[in-house]
Each structure stands twice: as C-alpha cells, then as structure tokens.
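User: Structure with zinc ion, tokens only please.
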Amino acid sequence: MFKQKEEKLCISCGNPVKGRSDKKFCDDYCRASYNNDLNSAVNNFVRNVNHALGKNRRILESLLPNGEATVKTTRDKLIEKGFQLKYHTHQYLTKTGKTYFYCYDYGYLPLENDWYLIVKREENH
Ligand SMILES: [Zn+2]
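Assistant:
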C-alpha cells in the first residue's frame, strides 16, 4: 500500500515545505516575515512596558506635593489614575525588612489596609 509522505507545512504561510525535513519555512521570504512579526511583538511588549513605567512614574510624581519627602495614598486612588502595580524598575529592601518598589526615581511602600507611602529617591542613595 502507498504510504503517504508526511507533509511539512511552512510555519509562516502554511504551504507545504519541500526539501529537508528540518526546514520550517517554504522560502526566505517567509522566514524573514515570520521573524519580523516575532520582533514586532517583542518590540510592542517592550514599548507597552516602558509606557506603563513612565505613566506609573508620572502618577507618583503627581501625588507627591512639591517639597514633601513622602505622602500617603490609597490603592484605589493609584488604580483609578491608571497605576499598574505589576510594573516597577527596581526594589529597595531596607534594613528593617521593608520593600520599596521604584518606578525610576519615585517609589512606594505598601502599608497596611491598602495604603501606600509614596517617596522620591534621594540623590545620595
Ligand atoms: Zn511559507
């Protein structure tokens, strides 16, 4: 009985791939366009995260009155302004075991009952 040869399909366009069995693309054009799509997905993600971080920083800055070192706010107020708690640039662990989350030069410390202490980075840290 005739055994049908397993057909390999291009992962970019779905057309049959001829030639070596380890080939993933039918031609160079498909390879290039597939990799471009991957890159643009990565670039979109990076752009979105950068945007979210910049927005987080602006929100923290807007909440901290001029000349004040710290201010307290609520989680609701942060969320309402579009703050995304999952994005921060770095953390700072104090000697007393508290973790500050920073978005560039502005940061926050989660307090009890969904309160947050907002701080600005000191130049000498
Ligand atoms: Zn193809």
